[in-house]
Amino acid sequence: MHWFSKKPIQPFFGGKNLPSPPPPFSSSSSSSSSSSFLRFLKPLSSLPFSPPPFLPSSPSISSLHLEPTSSKFIASSFKEWLSSRDPAIFNVLSSHHGDEGAAALSRLHLRLSESFVLQVLAHLRSRADVLTCLRFFDWAGRQRHFHHTRATFHAIFKILSRARLMTVMLDWLHAFSGHHRIRFHDTLVMGYAVAGQPDIALFLLGKMRFQGLDLNPFAYHVLFNALVEQSCFDAAEVISKQISMRGLDSEITSCIRMKNLCKQGRIDDAQAFLRQLGSSGAIINKRIIGVLVNALCKKKRFNDACTLLEEFGQSRKVPTAPTYSLWISNLIDAGKVDQALNFFHSKKKTEGFVPETLSYNKLICGLLRDNRLAEVYRLLAEMWEAQIAPDKVTMNAALCFFCKAGMVGYWVTPNGFSYYHLIKALCGDGSIDEACQVFEDSLKQGYFPGKTAFQFLADSLCRDGRLDEMSKLMDAALQKNIKPISSLCVKYISALCKAGKAEEGYLVPCKFNRPRTTVLKSNDYVSLIDGLIKLNRGDAASRLLLEMHESGYPPSHKLYRSVICYLCRTANLQQVLNILDMHLPHEQDGGAKNRHIFNYFIDGAGQALKPELAREVFERMSLRGIQPNMDTNILMLCSYLKSECIGDALNFFNDLANKHEPSNQLYNIMIVGLCKAGKPDHALEMWSEVRERGMVPTLHCYKELVNVLCTGGDYDKAIKVLNDFQKTGRNVSSFIGNMILSHTLEKPELNRAWVQSSALDGEELMLGQLVGTFSGGIRVREHLDSLEEVVEQFFQIDIFTCNILLRELTMEGRMDYACDLFHRICKKGYRPNRWTYDIIVHGFCKHGRRKEAERWMEAMYRNGFYPTFSTVGKYNYMKIKGE
Q: Based on C-alpha coordinates, what's the Rg of the chain?
């Protein structure tokens, strides 16, 4: 049984059903002389290839059986075609290095020219062979009678940029800047622009202009394009105007302007610009439509892109082959394989569309993902018949095809190198099951594909979250004494933690006899510790916390809190103190460096509601001669208040007050803590003391005081606090305003208390006007169509304010006004929440308006909200009653 999946997979080294070829026909292939390089100077798409000795004859792979001899014949024919894809110069470049490579190139007697160098660089770039590009560029620059041009420099700059070798490129440009005359600034401007350094490019342009020099048209357009790529739209607009002022406008300028509009997301302006070019009779670059089509596809506007293609395809004003290739590529990326295939065949038949290698590769890879092997087979044969040169992508696709077709035994000779390429091709195609099968077959055949193939497959399994297969793969590597690199171990551990298997992740480094400290980084420790806490493995989490600290990765405040809280929940207080002792000996520089660790432990104990543990840590801090700072005192005070140990909190506060005058921050913490503990009298006494000392409590402090007093119905004291709050000159917050509005609408006692207070003080403040305005409820209010505007005169409203008004309207049966208020707040930018919808549905149910209730309930579900239990009960009762 296959050890990577539950279902057995067809062995790769065997036969499978494929369309049988007709009898082979003879064809003379073009002969070439290895000494004459001119034959290879032709464009790569027109290099001579022999037609295949077979043609696809059946649309179905599964309907015909193919004999092993025929399978071998087809596989060897494809192999011969793909192996002949590179002319002699590229074989020399790939097989010779250093002085030997230079001598081999010289023996070819090449006639170097700008077009030839550009062609060779383009082909090497398509193979992602950056090092060979650099070797050839350097060799060409050393030959007599040839000097690199701005175009060749631009080509090598683009290759380095796409390979993300920015450091190499910038060092190169820096070296050039000191050894060339001033005219070489043109090339430097292009180089820095392509390297993603537009500021330096613009600086050099300014330097040239200061000396009375200017860029040539080619360099201007390179700079313009680079500014657009870097999203420097203002600078790009300036350069665009400079190009127009100098009369350098061309079809390339229009193409870059199109890219500028698309990159800014101005798709409609880009479409208008294209049609303006078409109507003016200007020459349209062959890539300009492709830029717009690509932008439309990224916005998922495939219908608009299709309409644009048909419009300009029928006009025949623009070469459409590159655009068609780009359209096919976007369709494949969007998963529209059938639409892409139909478009491909339709344009070939009706317009004589000649596809590029890219189009074939995209289609083949898309079909391979869907296991549509018959169509892949036909496309590969079609490429051969049309003499379209294959590239590395075609090679990998063909490998994948023969793997899926069960003919890989006829395609390659089994060895570690061939297994490596098979696994890489299958993983790149997303065929992970087949890649696992190849890996298993290689082990059975006695070959190990190598560390790189192992890492490639393991990375794919981790990315897809296939942890069982990954575990088996790791075991197989362990048997071969293969140790995965640290980055792969980290990915595996991270995947295990995300899957809730942190305990297995904890053991991964041990399995490969590698210290965790050499594998894990700071984020990995955090993931493991969090995962172990969720699995109730606090002992392992505490060991990792100490290990993380010793490895030079300081654990965060939050991480200490998580571990300490868990240990406290399990009543393992002594272990917390032991962990504290183990942390401290590693700090050799005295109290200042140890203090933050004590603070973390005090905070963790306070969060776990263990004030006695926090006090023990605090005492140990004093025994070690470390003076508590303000943070320490605040954390200790908070630990008492959170546990509602009010007496201990007051004693601790008084001890601090006896040593030095308490700060405003300490007073605020005490007041807020007392309010949350339900001790309004103590809090009010502390507030009075603060005001007598001339301090001003924080807004949070006032909010908690007013809330606890209003909740307890002590409106006289609440009004006293509110009057003092308004005298501080602060604006009424939404929280306080909503609280006063809610109590005013619900309880008339607040209005009576406010009237008495105004009579005694002889003045009425803004909050008093709010209470007076809404004291009678909204049943007597005029202008019910603008309630929120009335409230806005007193404080800044929010969605909670709107919910209060909606609830009052529904209680009074003013459902139409409630709906109008809902629509008004939406127009003003407020986002309704669950309670907003629930209030309206509840109101309709209460008043028996079934249809409206059903409509609003559906709107509630559409927006991702669910009604409360009370509203569901009323809704169901209304429906039963209506039936």
A: 38
User: What dihedral angle (degrees, nearest 10) is formed by the CA atoms of 546, 547, 549, 551?
Assistant: 170
Query: 407 pairs with which residues across the strands?
Result: 13
Superfamily assignment of 661-777 in CATH?
Answer: Tetratricopeptide repeat domain (1.25.40.10)
Rounded Cα distance between 66 and 745, Å, is 86
Helices (H), 677-733: 680-692, 699-711, 715-727
Task: Output the CA torsion sign for 853, 857, 859, 860.
Answer: positive
Higher pLDDT: 799 or 480? It is 799
Q: Max CA-CA distance within the chain?
A: 116
Q: Scanning the structure block, which residue is given the tokens 């308004």?
A: 726
Q: How far is CA 379 from CA 33, 362, 388, 390, in A?
A: 30, 11, 11, 12
The burial class, CB within 10 Å (0-12 / 13-18 / 19+), for 627 is exposed
Chain segment 619-673, per-residue pLDDT in tens: 888 888 788 888 888 999 999 988 888 889 889 988 888 888 888 888 889 999 9
Mean pLDDT of the chain: 75
- SS3 call for 407: strand
The two tokens of residue 139 are 């060799």
Please give the structure tokens belonging to residue 429: 């195609």
Residue with tokens 């004459």: 36
Sole residue written with tokens 């003092």: 724
Cβ contact 59:52 at 8 Å? no
Task: Report residue 332 as tokens.
Answer: 């494949």
> What pLDDT score does 403 carry?
65
- The β-bridge partners of 13 are 407
Task: Give me the CATH code for the 797-883 domain, please.
Answer: 1.25.40.10
Kindly state the tokens that stand for 611. 């004030």
Q: Residue 214 has what pLDDT?
A: 83
Could you read off the pLDDT of 240-292 as tens digits, one per residue?
888 888 888 888 888 888 888 888 888 888 888 888 887 777 767 667 888 88
Distance (Å, rounded) from C-alpha 323 to C-alpha 310? Answer: 11
pLDDT value of residue 310: 78
- The three-state (H, E, C) secondary structure of 121-137, written as one string: HHHHHHCCCHHHHHHHH
The pLDDT tens digits of the residues spanning 492-511 come to 777 777 777 777 777 777 76
pLDDT tens digits for range 660-677: 888 888 888 999 999 988
pLDDT over 90 at 752, yes or no: no
Rounded to the nearest 10 degrees, the angle between the axes of helix 538-550 and helix 522-534 is 170
Distance, CA of 131 to CA of 433 (rounded, Å): 34
Closest CA to 74 of 90, 58, 92, 98: 58
